[in-house]
Design brief:
heterodimer, A: alpha+beta, 7-stranded mixed sheet, 26 helices, B: alpha+beta, 9-stranded mixed sheet, 38% helix, 19% strand, globular
């Protein structure tokens, strides 16, 4: 039972790809070996910046011999058929066997496939795996056509039997011949060396200053860095991502801790951390008493005669240059804020284009501020603060610091807002209004932040809707799906009640004025501004639009004067854009709720109800309905409703009338019928009051009380009675059931 | 190299040592291209010569201009005009990394004392329609070079693949010489009768160009020149391959590419003047890329581009 050792030695593999590559090598090769008929006892894979390694222990030396019996044609079959059979089996006629079967004599072939040595199988499979390796990005080099993550230099591939005898697997991949040698550390190794087994390989690598296991390198780094920090009374700031990355940048980690010059300690800790991590891959070392970042840890790949003094000095110098930049930016920015305020810092945004059709950042900010003001009262925020926050929230985009470190946008806004002495809620909104950025990002809860965050996202959505740049298929260059999910999570996460239709209408109107205003007459813009003022009052655009036009007409400006103007065009198209955007939000909401286990038909049933632009209300209703339908009462009531609805619909179609006149109990013939009348009468006010209070669970519980009477009614009563009066009355009774049930949700949309 | 343990003493000595090193390794010592470019990669000795099947090995200094990086000569390491050292070898030799490390030794970086690292950095030039895989090379945490295996240039697959090295000369030299502010760096030998610092040579021009780049350059003129360069590039490439005067097949890939370089630099100037919006930026870059691609298409039709004469 030999052991297999493979090493693929290359130029430096990106740290982020190493561990998956090692795992891919293990999984693919072991699967291929098993597929080829070999078995093995265990396997493990390793990676360093320059190598992927795999050990497979207890591999069978040979795949088993297999025998396969094939039935052929009859002996008296045409010659061609027999020849064909022989070709397929790879045998000659004298190797066939003749057996007597019911239908006569038939040829049989026995095909024996001899087992193959493991070395041959490994060579064949490894060749394929190397040529088809799933690197996220691969490349060619020199004049060859082989692809690898970086140039592949050597392949070590040996089988070691129990006696310690080594066989080099006979393999040549595009001129790279497999051997039994490798090399150690780029600078501390001493040339190539031969290995005889995995243990030998690992031990010799270590002597050549390579720690094969990434986990061991990471542990060493963490331990050593923590110890050094601790010895100075400091603590290492945990960063697992950085630790894994750094462990993939070195074969022989040498941990060095350095000082951050006092001149930089006044910088915000995030600035220090970001600068050190992003640019230098340094760990931050914190003073637990002050919370300040006072030192850094860098991990070198080499031991030097001066114990890393030169390396540390160099790193410190690079850091000082980076932080000098940062400090310069920070101080300049603070001066700007103190002299001109945060709005002053953002003044330049008037000259920064947000999108060539949608205008400048300043125009966008003005729109967001107007909407934030509208939304503020709905989310419990002070309207003045929300407007102020929206006006300054993007000012830091003009700061030097964000220019250098874009990832600090928002956070710097918060610092600068604080420096400008703005309200803490405004400062918080500067940072939080970008959130939630992704599914994992937290949703802000401070009211001012929520107002600005919603306004920001709704402005983005309406803007791109207004210029017809909606996401299509996999294309979503402006991250509009993310913006929509942001709106959804902001509303649901805070349970705030924002009728989005009004906000969308208002913002679409602002977008249209911004887009086409410069081409329109002043009177047209004034009219649209007037409509904008009234949107909040009327809730939606349509009502506001007609109200304004009616008023103007009564003041002597006939409606037909608007024909062909921007006013008419906006009036005709805006509701459609608005409905389309709301539908997009609803689609995203369905995707979002699907993860929560809410059925799409349940959501559809609730989407059909009025107020569906209030996502909190919508989800509240959907959850109640979802829960209700999971109960026995719910399921049965649904069946009862469907039955009533079917009978009613059919009758209405047949008779060409709508039965909604109101049933009269005096025409009731049976107890069950009367009981249903009574139950409906009792349930109606209970349901109405529950719905008024938006207590959907209570409304549905009240509806559940109808289940038994409905069931009993259908069991006892024939709806299509002979007497037309009785029949009409019963159909009208069914209509009451339908009416009551449809108050909570559109149950016709529920499947099953 | 005999003098490799001795530290260089000036900016120019580092350049001279790199020249000597790469000359000894067999590269053709090219001279800087005589046009304004943003990086050494734009030199036709890299951009065009990385295309096609013919072997190539060249090294050169390229003065490079990045108008937005101007800091009036005040920033310790930011300049609107600086030097890159560029090496291009096609096909990339198997010992390219070792050759590179040898060049660091040649300029006095002792591998026994310093920490040299190859950190993933995939290179992409949206304006050239080019990309490659490689690293930024760190010396004690500082990026001293860019190392790239070209995969595509001007939209063409590179076959064979070129290995490209780019050294940011000022930054590298400052590190080797232990200088904190670029303007303080000795340009020639500090013991020379007339010792000059980098500041003596370039401080004034940094100031002058910073002012011009940021505030004075006439954007209408720049914009017009951009359009003209674009039109001229396309007009050149639209010519028949056979020259009616000489009757020879002369595809004018290089003159066309000059216009592409011009357009690229004019775009950089417009960008520094702050008149290009984020979205317009993409459109301009796309226009330059389209030119670069057409030039590459033309070059591979020429003899130097591997086409049989």
């Amino acid at each position: 039972m030999p052991d297999l050792l493979i090493e693929l030695f290359s130029e430096e593999i990106p740290a982020r790809m190493q561990s998956k590559a090692a795992e891919d090598l293990r999984a693919r090769l072991t699967e291929a070996l098993v597929e080829a008929g070999l078995t093995y006892a265990g396997a493990a894979a390793f990676s360093t910046p320059r190598r992927l390694a795999l050990t497979v222990q207890g591999l069978t030396g040979q795949s088993p011999t297999t025998r396969e019996e094939r039935k052929g044609p009859r002996v008296d079959a045409p010659e061609q058929a027999i020849e064909g059979f022989l070709r397929g089996a790879g045998l000659s006629r004298d190797q066939l066997e003749i057996r007597d079967e019911k239908k006569g004599q038939v040829y049989f072939a026995t095909i024996t496939k001899p087992g193959r040595p493991a070395a041959d199988i490994v060579a064949e499979e490894l060749d394929k795996i190397i040529r088809n390796f799933p690197w996220p990005k691969s490349m060619r080099w020199g004049a060859g056509s082989l692809r690898w993550v970086r140039p592949l230099h050597s392949i070590l591939c040996i089988l070691t039997d129990e006696a310690g005898e080594v066989t080099v697997v006979d393999l040549d991949v595009d001129g790279i011949r497999a051997g039994n040698t490798t090399e150690g550390h780029r600078f501390m190794g001493a040339g190539r060396f031969a290995v005889t087994s995995f243990d030998d390989y690992r031990a010799k690598l270590r002597r050549a200053h390579v720690i094969l296991e990434a986990e061991e390198r990471a542990q060493h780094i963490w331990q050593e860095a923590s110890n050094q920090a601790f010895a100075s009374g400091l603590e290492l700031v945990e960063d697992r991502g950085l630790l894994a990355e750094v462990a993939g940048l070195v074969e022989w980690p040498v941990v060095l801790m350095g000082r951050i010059d006092d001149a930089f300690l006044g910088l915000p800790p995030e600035v220090l951390q970001t600068s050190m991590k992003e640019h230098q891959k340094f760990f931050s070392v914190r003073n637990p008493k002050t919370g300040r970042i006072e030192r850094f840890v860098t991990v070198a790949n080499v031991e030097t005669a001066d114990q890393g003094a030169t390396i540390l000095a160099g790193n410190q110098k690079v850091l000082a240059a980076r932080l000098s930049d940062a400090k310069f930016f920070w101080e300049n920015d603070l001066r700007t804020v103190q002299a001109e305020g945060l709005e002053g810092m953002g003044a330049g945004l008037a000259h920064v284009t947000f999108h060539n059709k949608l205008g400048s950042q300043a125009e966008r900010i003005a729109r967001i501020a107007a909407l934030a003001r509208d939304i503020a009262p709905l989310v419990g925020a002070d309207a003045d603060l929300a407007e102020q926050a929206a006006k300054v929230a993007k000012a830091d985009l003009q700061s030097a610091m964000v220019g250098e470190f874009p990832e600090l946008q928002g956070l710097m806004g918060r610092y600068y807002a604080q420096a400008a002495g703005l309200d803490p809620a405004v400062a918080a909104a500067c940072q939080e209004h970008y959130s939630p950025l992704g599914p994992g990002d937290a949703v802000p809860s401070a009211p001012v932040s929520v107002a600005v965050a919603l306004a920001d996202k709704i402005d983005t959505l309406t803007g791109f809707w207004a210029i017809d740049e909606k996401p299509t298929g996999s294309k979503d260059p402006y991250a509009l799906r993310r913006a929509a999910l942001g709106v959804i999570r902001l509303a649901l996460g805070n349970g705030v009640r924002v009728p989005l239709a009004g906000s969308i209408d208002a913002q679409l109107l602002r977008q249209k004025i911004n887009l086409y205003g410069h081409k329109a007459e002043k009177g047209e813009i004034d009219t649209l501004e007037e409509v904008l003022d009234e949107v909040a009052q009327h809730g939606v655009f349509g009502a506001a639009f007609h109200a304004v036009l009616d008023r103007l007409q009564s003041n002597g400006q006939p409606k037909d004067q608007w024909a062909g103007t921007l006013v008419a065009q906006v009036g005709a198209t805006l509701p459609e854009f608005s409905a389309d955007l709301l539908a997009f939000l609803h689609d995203r909401l369905k995707v979002h709720l699907r993860d929560e286990g809410l059925r799409h038909d349940v959501i559809d049933a609730c989407l059909a109800m009025p107020g569906n632009d209030d996502l909190t209300l919508l989800v509240h209703r959907a959850r109640a309905l979802g829960d209700f339908l999971k109960t026995d009462d719910g399921e049965n009531l649904l069946q009862g409703f469907k039955r009533a609805n079917n009978i009613l619909t059919q009758a209405e179609e047949k008779d060409g009338v709508e039965y909604s006149y109101g049933a009269d109990v005096k025409f009731a013939e049976t107890d069950e019928e009367r009981a249903l009348f009574a139950a409906l009468e009792a349930a109606e006010p209970a349901i109405a009051s529950a719905l008024k209070a938006e207590d959907f669970a209570r409304a549905m519980a009240a509806m559940a009380a109808l289940r038994a009477p409905i069931d009993a009614f259908f069991t006892a009563v024939q709806v299509n009675a002979e007497s037309p009066v009785i029949r009409r009355n019963r159909l009208n009774l069914l209509s009451s059931i339908r009416h009551i049930c449809l108050q909570a949700a559109d149950l016709t949309r529920i499947e099953g | 190299m005999s003098d490799r343990t001795e530290k260089p003493r000036s900016f120019q000595e580092i350049i001279l040592r790199l020249q000597a090193y790469w000359a000894a390794k067999g590269c053709a010592m090219m001279q800087p291209y005589d046009m304004e470019v943003g990086a050494g990669t734009f030199h036709p000795a890299t951009t065009l010569r990385s295309l096609g099947s013919k072997p190539w090995a060249a090294a050169y200094v390229q003065p490079s201009r990045r108008p937005t990086d101007g800091r009036y000569g005040e920033n310790p390491n930011r300049l609107q005009h600086y030097y890159q050292y560029q090496v291009l070898i096609k096909p990339s030799p198997p010992d390219m990394q070792d050759l590179y490390l040898g060049s660091l030794r040649a300029i006095g970086i002792d591998m026994a004392l310093h920490d040299i690292r190859f950190v993933e950095d995939d290179w992409e030039s949206p304006t050239l329609g080019a990309w490659g895989l490689g690293w930024e090379v760190w010396c004690d945490g500082m990026e001293v070079s860019q190392f790239t295996y070209f995969q595509q240039v001007g939209g063409h697959d590179c076959a064979p693949v070129s290995g490209e090295l780019t050294y940011g000369l000022e930054r590298l030299a400052m590190y080797v010489l232990g200088i904190d502010h670029v303007m303080d760096m000795p340009f020639n030998d500090p013991a020379a009768p007339i010792a000059l610092t980098y500041g003596d040579v370039f401080r004034q021009t940094e100031e002058e160009y910073s002012r011009w780049n940021f505030d004075v350059a006439n954007t209408d003129v720049l914009l017009r020149h951009f359009e003209e360069a674009e039109a001229e590039c396309q007009a050149i490439l639209a010519q028949e391959a056979v020259d009616p005067k000489t009757g020879k097949r002369i595809i004018m890939a290089h003159p066309a590419y000059d216009q592409c370089i011009k357009a690229s630099h004019l775009f950089n100037l417009l960008d520094a003047r702050g008149v290009i919006s984020v979205t317009e930026r993409q459109a301009y870059i796309g226009r330059v890329r389209a030119l670069a691609k057409q030039c590459a298409d033309a070059f591979v039709q020429t003899e130097a581009g591997g086409q049989a004469a």
